[in-house]
């Protein structure tokens, strides 16, 4: 009882309180980094949307492509993976050096290390 009183009186943190404060501080830092990442992604998404709108208006005005044609192409691309779900899932690809299957998002084969040519739409 005396050590608790002395520790509390002189501002020393004991066991559970110190651990909880450290955990809270780490959680706060993690939340702050996650919020920053979310804000960065939101900024990138807004820029991508603005770019797509600019491209669409140029194509529509200069090439005469209609919204119906655009929608048909969107559905065609959506169905390229066999599922109409608003997403495109590209199957794993085969490494040309070791013939093992690897995810398309990788820039190097995780098995042999050879550089993989990237699809610009992944």
| N-to-C CA distance | 63 Å
Overall 3D geometry? flat
Whole-number average pLDDT? 85
Number of domain modules: 2
| Total number of strands | 2
- How are the strands of the largest sheet arranged? 1-2
How many helices? The count is: 3
Question: Describe the biggest sheet?
Answer: 2 strands, antiparallel
Q: By helix and strand content, what is the structural category?
A: mainly alpha
**Strand/helix succession:** HHHEE
Name the poorly predicted regions: 1-11
Percent range for β-strand residues: under 5%
Question: What is the CA-based Rg, rounded?
Answer: 27 Å
Helix content: 55-70%
Overview of the structural elements:
It is a single chain. With 122 residues, the protein is mainly alpha-helical. It has 2 domains: 2-89; 90-122, no CATH class. 57% of the residues lie in helices and 3% in strands. It is built from 3 helices and 2 strands; from the N terminus they run αααββ. The chain has a two-stranded antiparallel sheet. The longest helix is centred in the N-terminal third of the chain and has 49 residues, at 15-63. The termini are far apart. Mean pLDDT is 85; it is low at 1-11.
Q: What's a concise summary of this model?
A:
By secondary structure, the protein is mostly helical. The chain contains three helices and two strands, in the order αααββ.
Architecture blueprint of SSEs:
Blueprint: H1 2-9, H2 15-63, H3 67-78, E1 93-94, E2 101-102
Antiparallel strand pairs: 1-2
What key attributes describe this structure?
single chain; 122 residues; mainly alpha; 2 domains; two-stranded antiparallel sheet; flat; disordered N terminus
């Amino acid at each position: 009882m005396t050590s608790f009183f002395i520790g509390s009186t002189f501002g020393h943190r004991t066991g559970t309180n110190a651990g909880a404060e450290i955990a809270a501080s780490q959680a706060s830092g993690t939340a702050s980094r996650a919020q920053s990442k979310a804000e960065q992604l939101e900024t990138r998404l807004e820029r991508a949307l603005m770019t797509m709108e600019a491209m669409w208006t140029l194509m529509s005005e200069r090439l005469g492509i209609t919204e119906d044609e655009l929608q048909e192409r969107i559905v065609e691309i959506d169905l390229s993976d066999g599922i109409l779900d608003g997403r495109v899932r590209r199957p794993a690809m085969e490494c040309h050096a070791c013939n093992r299957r690897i995810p398309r998002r990788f820039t190097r084969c995780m098995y042999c290390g050879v550089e993989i040519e990237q699809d610009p739409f992944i």
